Every structure is written in structure tokens, then in C-alpha cells.
Amino acid sequence: MSTKLWRVGWLGAIAVLLAVAYSGCTLYPPRLGQISAQPTSTILVAAATSLQPALQEITSIYTQTNPDRVVKYNFAASGILAQQIQQGAPVDVFIAAADRQMNALQKQGLLAAGTSKTLLTNQLVLVIPKQSPISLTNFRQLTNPAVKRIAIGEPRTVPAGQYATEVFKNLDILEQIKSKLVLGNNVKSVLTTVETGDVDAGIVYITDARNSSKVQIVAIAEPNLHSPIRYPISILKSSKSLTGSRQFIKFLNSKSAAAIFEKYGFGIAKPQS
């Protein structure tokens, strides 16, 4: 073979190798460390703001034991989340802080059949700043002239605000304190205004108050003064990850998840018959 032909042969071989490389193929199998990870399943969860600390801790444990699962959250007031779902937000699992929002979605046929249940319970408390000069021991004392501003959640969208309004009505003090009310867009914002001293008192869940070093709990609302505080959970009919969502909810009902919920002050709902 002439030198010229020999060079042509090698050039042709190189061209073939380049063509293979650019086509995305490979001549040899990749090394073990080069193999890409398997695709993950993402679960989109819309959850009431009051659940944020507990759910974040629980999810860190869940993803360690389920590395193929990714859980993403949208934390906000239950009413706002329900509105987003009604408008087509891509949600797999919804956890509300009241039955009202979940029932509304149920009536509109937006929930997957047989997936709704009550997950947790909570308590409503009256809090004041840690260094408050005002002494309060019960909800009726909110009519005291020394109490100028009272923070509660917006009753139309924040369940804690709805419960607080029920307490005021049942104690027959709503009209007397209505002008004092400062409305927050979620429980966290209500707690913050109390912590900073921007208001004299606030109504939040015991789970929020117990995890703040800047407020003091001065009273717990009697259960007969408001609707039962329940946290319903359900999978959305439009979910793209039904299997993953069911698995996640099963974990939320496990003993390890229950221990974390209880650490933050939540009550575990009794199994429904």
C-alpha cells in the first residue's frame, strides 16, 4: 500500500470516530461512576403555613430513605392555596388548616376519590410580646382599653383568623374589639407582629407560639368556642404522581412522622372509621 493510500485510510477511520462521537453514541460502556442517576419523582405539596417547620423536618427524613423522591412545597394560608388549586395550580397533595377549604375543593370534584382524611389537630392561643407591660390572662380582657391592637389572620383566607373570629363572637366581644383588629395574610405574619411588639396581642396556633422565644402564651381557647381545628389532607385528582403522593401520605401517618408533629405541638388525629 502506498503512503498516500495509508494516510487516506487513517483519515477515514478518524472521520468515523468523530461521527460516532457527535451522534451521541459511545464505543465503550461508561464507567460505573459516570452513569447518570435515575430520574426522580417530584411531589408538589400545597400546605398551610403553620405546618412549615414540622413538614420540613419530616421531609428531610423522608427523602433520606426515599432518594428517588423530591418533595416541593408551597406554604401559604389555606384559603389562598385553595384558590390557586381552583385556578389550576399543579398540585399533587393539599394539606389545609381547616375543613372548609378542603370541602370546597371536594364539592368541585377536584380531589382524588378516597384519599381525603384528617391528619392533625391544633389549639388556638392568645399570645402577647415576651416583655409586654400589659397583663392578660384570658380572651375577654382584649376589651381592656390598654389593648390597642390585636393581630389575627384574615378570616376569609386564614383558618386561624376564622377560628379567632368564632371565639370573639361566642364570647360576645367581637363588636367591642373589631376596630382593634390587625389582619395578617397567614399565621406566621400574625406571630411576627406580636414578636416585634407592633401589636399588643395576637391569636395564633399553639404550634406557632411554642416555637417562638419572643412571645408568651397567656390563654388557650376552650374547644367549645370555635370549630374543631383539623388539618385535612388529600391528593388532587389532577396529580401527575399518584403513586408518589400515596407513598408520601403514608409516611406522614407513620410513627416517626407523628413524633415530629407532636414535638411541634400538633395533635395526631384518631384513625377515621
Report on this model:
With 273 residues, the protein is α/β, with parallel strands linked by helices. The protein has ten helices and eleven strands. The strands form two sheets. A six-stranded mixed β-sheet has the order 2-1-3-10-4-11. A five-stranded mixed β-sheet has the order 7-6-8-5-9, with helices on both faces. Helix 2 runs antiparallel to helix 10 and helix 3 packs parallel to helix 4.
User: Structural class of the helices, strands and pairings?
Assistant: alpha/beta
Q: Calculate the terminal CA-CA distance, rounded to whole Å.
A: 88 Å
Radius of gyration: 27 Å
Could you estimate the helical fraction of the residues in percent?
Answer: 25-40%
Unreliable stretches? 1-39
Question: Count of DSSP E strands?
Answer: 11
* Approximate strand percentage: 15-25%
Q: How would you spell out the order of helices and strands?
A: HEHEHEHEEEHHEHEHEEHHE
The major β-sheet equals:
6 strands, mixed
Strands of the biggest beta sheet: in what spatial order?
2-1-3-10-4-11
Provide mean pLDDT, rounded. Answer: 88
What is the number of helical segments per DSSP (H or I, 4+ residues)?
10
